[in-house]
Amino acid sequence: MLETARRLFWEKGYRATSMRDIGISYGCKPANIYNFFSDKEEILFAVLREEMERIIHPIKHLEDDDHTSPIEQLRFLIECHLKVTLSYRRSARLLFDVALDNLSPDKRKKIIDYRDTYDRIIRKVIRRGIDAGFFPKIDLKLAGFMIASMITRTRIWFHPKQGASVGELVDFIFKFALNGLSGLKRKGSRKR
């Protein structure tokens, strides 16, 4: 049911999709949806929460991992995030651009808490790279945003049958991020 709603939110837009649309597309009477969800907002929240949990769950351990190389951690984080992002490529592009405005403050806060968890993890990975001497002292917040943005923007242009494979994209984004972070050290850019 969530996959059906995700697809309809993508195709028609959240506001233009009705509970009736979801029910008919799913193959049940629209009233049956209310056995599982109280309203459309609850469905949207479930869709967003599911994606955030799928991004965070495999990387959560990195928050306290002081033993694995920060370079290995960065590659793992990029790989996990990219695989989830591209598995929801078509439907999620629109949702994360506009969806938070359609959630109640309480539900919006929960989704933002997931996003903050992700941001905290990626910053800790970058911080470990700085502390280990792999990267120069840089703005952790901006570096984290840039890497996450490279990953999330792939859902706009990626096509599984044209161009690079998911594995090739993981390698490219990882090398691009790593070279960008390492390149700052060689160029002697302003330290923050």
Structural summary, described in words:
There is one protein chain. The N and C termini lie far apart (47 Å). The protein is elongated and about 60 Å long. α4 packs parallel to α7 (105-131). It has a single domain (39-187), classed as Tetracycline Repressor, domain 2. With 192 residues, it is mainly α. Residues 187-192 have low confidence and may be disordered. It is 70% helix and 0% strand. The protein contains nine helices and no strands.
SSE topology:
Elements: H1 2-12, H2 19-26, H3 30-33, H4 40-56, H5 70-87, H6 89-98, H7 105-131, H8 140-157, H9 166-187
Give the % helix. Answer: over 70%
CATH architecture assignment name:
Orthogonal Bundle
Strand content: under 5%
Order of H and E elements: HHHHHHHHH
| Major beta-sheet overview | none
Tell me the span between the first and last alpha carbons. Answer: 47 Å
Structural class: mainly alpha
Mean pLDDT across all residues, rounded? 87
Number of helices: 9
How many strands appear in the DSSP assignment? 0
Query: What's the name of the CATH homologous superfamily?
Result: Tetracycline Repressor, domain 2
- Please identify the top-level CATH class: Mainly Alpha
Shape: elongated
Rg over alpha carbons: 19 Å
Task: Please tell me the total number of domains.
Answer: 1
- The oligomeric status of these chains comes to single chain
Enter the CATH topology name: Tetracycline Repressor, domain 2
> Which stretches of 5+ consecutive residues score pLDDT under 50?
187-192
